[in-house]
């Protein structure tokens, strides 16, 4: 089997997010024109997104999500911008939607945040007592010494 070229992968990803947006719009019984107005984008641009001809930015996806009243994270995951992540969904969405940050800066922030979440989850999974040898050779819980 021949590996898919990056351009073909991007087109396939754009089509998938476009199909998902169209499905969500139709389920919400919102016209293309209404969603374009709610999201603050032009009708032709939204139409191109739905047909997979354009790949929307994280900011545009957030505006579309707000217009559809769905989670922006759903759209980010579908668009391949975001993997399912640990942590606060709203915080992740806010970082991705911040227009003052570049895409690379957003990714670095999310990577750091997720690493802290993983670290805290690992620490919380460990027992609160750490046995060590005291003078009388009995285990002592942390904070009792």
Task: Explain this structure.
The protein starts with 5 loop residues before the first helix and ends in a 20-residue tail after the last helix. The chain has 145 residues and is mostly helical. Helix 2 (32-39) crosses helix 3 (43-50), helix 2 crosses helix 4 (58-68) and helix 4 (58-68) crosses helix 5. 61% of the residues lie in helices and 0% in strands. The chain is elongated.
Q: Short description, anyone?
A:
This protein has helices at 6-27, 32-39, 43-50, 58-68, 72-79, 89-97, 103-125. The protein is mainly α.
Helix/strand layout:
Layout: H1 6-27, H2 32-39, H3 43-50, H4 58-68, H5 72-79, H6 89-97, H7 103-125
Helix pairs in contact: 2-3, 2-4, 4-5
Per CATH, the class reads: Mainly Alpha
Q: Compute the gyration radius: what is it?
A: 22 Å
Domain unit count: 1
Secondary structure category: mainly alpha
List keywords for this structure.
61% helix, 145 residues, 434 Repressor (Amino-terminal Domain), mainly alpha, single chain
């Amino acid at each position: 089997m021949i590996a898919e070229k990056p351009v073909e992968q991007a087109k396939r990803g754009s089509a998938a997010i476009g199909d998902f947006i169209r499905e969500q719009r139709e389920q919400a019984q919102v016209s293309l024109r209404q969603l374009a107005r709610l999201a603050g984008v032009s009708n032709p641009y939204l139409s191109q997104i739905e047909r997979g001809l354009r790949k929307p930015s994280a900011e545009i996806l957030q505006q579309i999500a707000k217009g559809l009243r769905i989670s922006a994270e759903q759209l980010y995951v579908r668009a391949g911008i975001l993997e399912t992540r640990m942590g606060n969904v709203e915080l992740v969405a806010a970082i991705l939607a911040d227009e003052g940050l570049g895409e690379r800066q957003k990714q670095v922030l999310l990577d750091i945040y997720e690493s802290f979440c993983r670290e805290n989850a690992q620490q919380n999974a460990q027992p609160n007592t750490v046995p060590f040898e005291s003078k009388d050779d009995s285990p002592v819980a942390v904070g009792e010494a």
